Request: fold
Amino acid sequence: MEVPILKQGAVLIATFQAALSDADLNHLRMGLVQQVVKFRSRAVIVDVTAMDVMDSFASRTLREIAHMIRLRGAETVIVGIQPEVAFAMVQLGLTLEGVATALDLEEGLAYLNEKFKTAN
Amino acid sequence: MAKREGTPTFPEGNREEPSELLRELVAHLRQNRTQLREEWVVRITETRLLTAMTKEEIFAEATSVYDSYVEALETEAFEALQAYARNLSERIIPRGVETHEVVGIVLLLRDVLARSLFAKYQTDFKKLNRILDAYEPAANRIANTVAVGFVQERERVIRQQQEAIRELSTPVLQVRERLLILPIIGVIDPQRARQLTEQLLRGIRTNRAKVVVIDITGVAAMDLTVANNLVQTVEASRLLGATVIVTGLSPEIAQTLVTIGVDLGKMNTVGDLQGGIEQAERLLGYKVEKLAEPR
Reply:
């Protein structure tokens, strides 16, 4: 399944679909980093609003994506985690530690704006 | 009535089918409806049941119960009767009618109808026995069904009230834009802790909160399960982009948390609610300045 990746200035926005297989996630991991390199993006927003479950593999992949992207000097923000999904995740001990999170796309972009402002 | 092949004939007449007996008795109950219902209402008043209702109300309900009773005898449709009983309960429970009253009046009706059967068949003892053989199991089943229906309705109301109390006792309050306060008071059991977390997460999403102050001044004690739940609440809130500040930890709870080794690095704590709100305002970029003295 192809995950749409949109470019918004220096930010890439990847919108996860509801049912991503492990293969999709692996594919995405490489794909996103390649796009960051290609466009010299400063940040990536991963929108998981459509995901109604988040298992340990998906959670680990998100953390790995964030780490790999940070090695390219870019920031990752995960947005759109639903209340029920967040609750289930913390009960399984999946806290996405070390990865920035925001309520939704709007908040994610606001967070990045602040960060870029203070960085410049 | 035709004789069945091979069935011995009794001197006192032919045997009826049980369903025929039921039909006969239902017909009798219908014919004497007015008189029997009146007798029943008199007995209800004499026994001092349904004191919460007026005479007119009792009569109206008695009519509908009597008719449902006879219909249940006739059709043996006990599901319909149970539905009727729950419906009746929904009406009368708010009026303060108790379980013993409902069971009491149904048993009184059973007695009133039985007495009238004794009166009618008193000259034919064997027939009376056969009629009672048909009547008694059905009447007992009716009494049972109505009582169970009533109790089920009461239990449903109690569950509903418990749910309402639980929700009321954990309000999620917005005090500034993007700032929520969750004051927790009383005992937190695992179920309440879970409900609290769900309510808070929904509140964060609805109000687009960026900071939440959870005040536990009103919480006397906390065990390991609840302490872990608090940590999980903090972590889940972060996943929704909100920072949590916990305020009001009593010395006892602070001791508990340290003893059981809760990772306090994951928790942002401030002494009291006032301090917590002030820090939250700072995080949100507010500055509060006093412009004049209070009048």
